[in-house]
Structures are given as structure tokens and as C-alpha cells.
Amino acid sequence: MFSVGTIPGGTPQSPEPGAASASFPSLAPVSGRGEAEEEEDNEQEPAEIYLCALWTSGYLGIAYYDTSDSIIHFMPDAPDHESLKLLQRVLDEINPRSVVTSAKQDENMTRFLGKLASQEHREPKRPEIVFLPSVDFGLEISKQRLLAGNYSFIPDSMTTTEKILFLSSIIPFDCLLTVRALGGLLKFLGRRRIGVELEDYNVSVPILGFKKFVLTHLVSIDQDTYSVLQIFKSESHPSVYKVASGLKEGLSLFGILNRCHCKWGQKLLRLWFTRPTHDLGELNSRLDVIQFFLLPQNLDMAQMLHRLLGHIKNVPLILKRMKLSHTKVSDWQVLYKFLSEEKLHYRSARTKELDALLGDLHCDIRDQETLLMYQLQCQVLARAAVLTRVLDLASRLDVLLALASAARDYGYSRPRYSPQLLGVRILNGRHPLMELCARTFVPNSAECGGDKGRIKVITGPNSSGKSIYLKQVGLITFMALVGSFVPAEEAEIGAVDAIFTRIHSCESISLGLSTFMIDLNQVAKAVNNATKQSLVLIDEFGKGTNTVDGLALLAAVLRHWLALGPMCPHIFVATNFLSLVQLQLLPQGPLVQYLGLAKGFRAGSRDIDDTLSPCISFKTMETCEDGDDLVFFYQVCEGIANASHASYTAAQAGLPGNLVARGKEVSDLIRSGKPIKPVKELLKEKQMENCQTLVDKFLKLDLEDPNLDLDIFMSQEVLPAATGIL
Q: Which residues form the DNA mismatch repair proteins mutS family domain (predicted)?
């Protein structure tokens, strides 16, 4: 059966990180292998990898086919420098036999591939460079090629619509470069007939699945997670003069931490955000610098350095202009400030006499200036590598100074990394965005892994802070994985390889998916890709359909993860489906813990059955009733909520009191199993309206009309209305 997974460390054959880094060693036991298996492996043909790569406007799209498992691996669109360092890392890690790309390429990509092809002594061998016509990489053609593929893991009984929905849960169709790379790869595989060279032409290249590829040390985070956690948030600029750019950064994590003074520092910070890592050496190196600049005796130096970094301009663009001899005076001013000493230069009568006597030396002066400028330009270009290295270091310093400034102003603390810990431990954590918007913010702790349970079930009333709590855990973990201080008293981060979320539905008009289908796709990504080192955040899943089906889906997903035992991911799930506990839909075992943020939790009572799994953590957001008001404490505590208090939230939203009261009455009747009867006052009012309508119709009849048929009036008007009147 087809499986969809994340491939950390360039080891796509294993659902777990097979080639774990030195910083986070794999805890999975190594199974013994018999001689027969080894002989069988020796007889197999060596695996070959065929890579397709596209680079456009600073972004890289990658897809490759591995003959060892007949699976296509893809990496969603990722930012990459003009030097294509990310592409080089991918090549070093997977060592492809062929690199496929478009014949119409950017100059940087062409130069990179030229160097790659010239590496005669590359180990283990230099790849073959294959150029296909640019039309083979068209977006719509690539989409059609993906949807028309003959995949053994998709049943023939699936309709076209069902196939689109299924593939959309696997392939990120919003990553345009990746989709184009996948389309080009399929074209190449079909043309070369990889693996089926000797078969009949009607036999297609075997494709057994699609999997997401993640480089070693990088943490997998999809675009939905970046959006729902508000790591990035673009919004329209209010100024009418910003039509060209159109967007600016809104309230987001990147927005509050981006205090970089130079453009290249901002680009580097965004790059760090798009590539969170669990490389302990790199993370601790960043934290050491931040901690150094946070020392009181280093404050003045940090502020001075940060201010000076603002003078750094677009050095790579200047060097490019020098190579093309298009340098402007302003470019030289960027590299070195001229001092005019406030002197003015002009031509007087005496200078004109000297020109007539000695001749106009202007041409000679211009020639000499041109020669000097050319020599100076050659000297600068000869040191371009040094300038680029200085720019990289200055950008890194700018980012670290920005993170140190934010940590100082917001009271962040240094996180710790524990490779042996599976999960996270957060003491009095805070939401980095919410605490800036709220007058007071209540910190909450979080802990998962070990004997604290893998699944945390959080219940509580609406507006009690469940979603904020989930996002807070995700953001603190993310900040630690980019090497930033975090909003918590203490934070210990274990071996986290991915963060998955189902918190907010991101609409997709282009794919034509319903909100509930988008929710299902987000959960499917977590179910198919999450490992025992992954963090999964799920909020109110199942509310897009009826209560019974939604409850059943949520229980089925949690039971699936519980069945994995020690391989279960670290899951925080917020829900108002209290029947999940009351009906005991989760099996017994040591993996679930119940938390919550609600009033009326009853720790130790039947709401927390002792026969349930002690590692399903039940917690609730603590509240109390003050007359007709409900006071939220926004504090996580042990237990389960006994009510969602939807009527209180509805009243706060401005719904009429009679509607709120009727809703509460119907809810109580359903909960007690009693029949729901219409409201008598409303029923009488409706009866009177129906009677009045029938009387009005009768009074309009002309009884003296010889053509009037009262039998027709009785059958068409009176009798149908009788049921609503009597």
C-alpha cells in the first residue's frame, strides 16, 4: 500500500530518520540482518537517483526519483541564494546520476551547472546534465501530467475528482516551482523509460508513491503551519504609493523579531525562519552570540554595531555592475563615502585664459580618470570573494543583534537542547504575539514525552485560550529551532524533526477544495508524515461536518496514533467533543493525558476514568462563574471540562437573548435524551400568521364570479394550510 512520509537525512527508504545527525542520535534499535538478506541485497542493482531542479527569482524547486523504492521525492519551494548553496547541499546528500532542468535558465543556474559538469574528479561521480525544452516545465502542463499519471497506489475506481482531492493531500500544488519540477521529472522518466527500458512501450515507469524530502538537520514545516502560527503574515500596504510592492509584513513572529538594519540581514533572518534546524552546534553558536550581546557591559557596543550595519548596501549588485562596466557614481559612494569638504568648483575668467594658453586638458583628465577607475574596479573585483564573505558575516551579525535586541526588550530566555528528550518541556511559556496585544497575559507550562504522555487532550469553553495555548507551544518550539531566545522562564527542546498543525483552514480557491476537505488534507499530512519525533497541533478537528461524523473522525485519528505505541508523535489536540471522554472512545494505554482550560473540570471523578490511558493527558482552562458572567483564568490545569459554555460565548457575540436561551434549552434536552418540542408561543404566533394569510386570500375572492370554483380553492389553498393551522 502506498505511504506518504517525510524523509529526513536523505534516507527515503525508512519512515524514521535513518541517518540521524550527530547532534540528535537515533534512538531506534538496529535490527539484525541475516546472511540471506545480505546476499539478496548484493544481487540487487545499485540505486540510481534522477533529480529535476528549477531556480527562479531566488527560490528553488526540487523533485527526484529513486529507483531503489520507485518513489518520487519532492522538496517544497525554498529560498536559495544566487550561489545555489541549498541545491549544492541536495546534490551532496543524494548524489544523483542525472540532473534535469529547463533549457531556458537564469544565468546563475547556468553558471552553477557549468561548474558541476566540469568537476571531472567529483566523488562518487559527476552527474549527467540534461536540458529539456522550457515548455515541458509549464505549470498547467505539469499539473495535468501529475493528475494523468498511472499510479499503482491509486485505485482504478477513483473518479477524476477523487484523484485530485487525494493528490492534493500529498503534493503541495501551491508550490509552483515544485509542481513544475515534478512535471519535468515525469516527462524525463517517460522519455528515458527509467526501469522499464526492455518492457513493452505500454508499460509505464513504476511510481509507488510521493514523499516529502527534508535535508539532514532541517526541521520539516509546511506552508499551512507558517500561516496558522503567524510566523509570516503578508497584508496589503495602506499607502496608495505602495502599488509596486503591494504587501508588507503584518503582525507576525518575523515582524516582531526583524530588527535588522541592513537588507541582507533581513534576507538571512527570513532564510533562518524557512530552515529551522536541529544542528546543535549551529543553534548553540547563535545562542552564544545573543547571550554575549545581552550582557549589560556589552549593550553600548551592540547598539553601535547595529547602527553601523545600516550603512551596508547591496554589495552583490554593485559587483555585478562592475563586471558589466555599468557602475554608477552612487555605487562607488556606497563602497566609500566621498568628502567634498564643502568646496565648490567653477570656471573663472583666469581658468578660461589658462585653457586657451595650455589647451583644454579635459579629455586627458577624463582618460586618466577612466584608467584609474578601471584599475580600481579590477582591484575591487579581485577581492569580490572577500567582500562577499564580509557581507555574509555582517548579515549574520545583524540578525543575531536583532534577536538579542528582541530578547532584551521582551524578556526572553535561552532554551536548552536535549537530544535524549523526545518532546518539549516549557515552563511558564508565553505567546510571543498575544502578549504584545493583551494588557495581561497568563503564562502556561507544557510538557510532553517520557512519562508525561504523548497525546494531550485539551478541553474548555470557547474563547478560553485553547488555540492560543496550542500556537504558543508551536511558536516556542519553532523559535528555539531557529536559534532564538524564547518567551518562557525555561524551555528544553528535544529531538523535534517536524511541526504539523490543523488549527486554521487556509482557503484554496484554485484547487476548489471545501473548508472541511482542507482540514482533512492538513490532518492527512500529519498522519502520513509524523514520526515519534514530530510535534502535532490539532484544534477543533471534525467541526466541519456533523457532530457524530466529526467525533468519529477525531477518535479514529487519535486511535491510529495510539496504536503506534512508542512511535506515536507528540500531539496536542484541543476539542469541545466532550463525548470523546464520556463515551470512552480512546483505548486504554500509557500514551494519553487530559489537559484543559475550562470551568467545572473534575479531576479524579468519572470524567477522568482511572481505566483510561494515564498518558492521555486531560487538562482544562480554569474558569469560574460570577453570577451570569463567566470569568476566564486562561490557566491550564488537570481535568476535563463539563460544558463548552457556548451560550455565554454567543451572548458575548451579540446574539439576541431569546435565541441564546432557546439554544441552551435545546442543548439541555439533547443532553438529557428528551424530545425537542416547538416553542408554544412561537407556534401560536405562526398559526395566527397562517390563518391571517388564508383569510386574506379568501377575502380577495369574487364570489359573484360565475367562473369561480370553490372546490379548487379548498384543495389548493385551504387543505394544504390546514396542517399549519390546526
A: 534-550
Exposed/middle/buried for residue 95 (C-beta within 10 Å: 0-12, 13-18, 19+): middle
Mean pLDDT of 3-9: 41
Measuring CA to CA, which residue among 214, 190, 180, 218 is closest to residue 52?
180
pLDDT at 53: 94
List the beta bridge partners of residue 638: 595, 619
SS3 state at 130: strand
Pairwise CA distance, residues 531 & 520, whole Å: 19
DSSP E strands, 165-286 = 209-213, 220-221, 234-236, 247-249
Q: Which residue has the higher pLDDT, 148 or 597?
A: 148
User: Contact, 217 vs 13, CB < 8 A?
Assistant: no
Strand duo 592-596 + 616-626: pairing = parallel
Please return the burial class of 366, using the count of CB atoms within 10 Å of its CB with bins 0-12, 13-18 and 19+.
exposed
**Packing angle between helix 263-274 and helix 384-410, nearest 10 degrees?**
70
Give the separation between CA 289 and CA 293, rounded to whole angstroms: 6
Contact 702, 708 (CB under 8 A): yes
CA–CA separation, 527 and 137 (whole Å): 31
Closest residue by Cα to residue 457 from 616, 241, 291, 341: 616
Closest CA to 276 of 446, 488, 89, 477: 477
Least confident of 154-163, 188-197, 352-361: 352-361
b/e 35-73 (16+ beta carbons within 10 angstroms → b): eeeeeeeeeeeeeebbbbbbbeeebbbbbbbbbeeebbb
Dist CA 587 CA 616 (whole Å) = 10
Nearest to 51 by CA among 13, 2, 4, 91: 91
- Is residue 7 a contact partner of residue 531, using CB atoms and an 8 Å limit? no
Distance CA 440, CA 434 (A): 10
pLDDT of the residue at 451: 65
HSE-up (13 A, CA, CB side) for residue 28: 16
- 502-530: b (≥16 Cβ within 10 Å) or e: bbbbeebeeeebeebbbbbbbbbbbbbbb
pTM exceeds cut of 0.85: no
Contact present, 249 and 233 (Cβ < 8 Å): yes
